Fold:
Amino acid sequence: MTSFEIDPCSKCEEVMQPYLDGSLSDAEIAEAHAHLDLCAYCAKRYRFEVELRRFVRQAAVEEMPPELKQRLAQLRTPLL
Amino acid sequence: MSETSQETEARRLATEARDRVRFEEDALALSDQVYRVARHLVGSRDEAEDLMQETYARAFRSWRSFSPGTNLRAWLLRILTNLNIDRGRKLQRTPDSQPLEEGDYFLYNRLEQSVGDESPDEERVVERLSQDGVVSALSAVPHDFRDVLVLVDIGDFSYADAAQILDIPIGTVMSRLHRGRRILKTQLAGETVGAT
Structure:
């Protein structure tokens, strides 16, 4: 564990995921925000992380085969 | 005029049938979203299809245990993850050694080097990644980490929902997610630009 005073870029790397998840405290968000405003190195990596999350989410989407949908519907309880 | 007991019973059955039909329709309407998660919890499409069918068969049998007004998608995923664990993940062997896990900037740094420019735009860096690479990297993440990663980052579940679905403490969700993302990135770097 480091801090923004001692090693700001390492600290920024450490809090990047919780920052993106919105799970940091207000004080930590303010610190990370202030660092990202000043540091092009971390700002670039921050923008990459945002893009990466979007890319992974899209890349992982695989549509359900229509036949499976039909098979699931056939599992329904028959109406008397 | 008071209702006979036969009429009361008929009314009860009619209400139950209506509730059940509504439940089944709601559950089926969510099947695309459930499949999206299921597909990456297991290694192959066939396994995902089997798991979906088992899940829906069980959900339709035990529909009465669902509390209306609560999160049906999370309820279905809870059945699905339990079934997946019950299956013993027999076909999904966990590697003997834990994969390497690097820091959060590792993937960017590796991709940036591979682009060749001094300081490329991050869009060009992301473009190095491929859809197949993501799918393959995800499947290489060990199960405990992958379950959380898939629920939160692909299924859009909150930490609290993921904790409930997997029946683990929220702190465990957070730590597994943290490690799972790092493992995924290390795998992605390997898939995209080769191992170090």
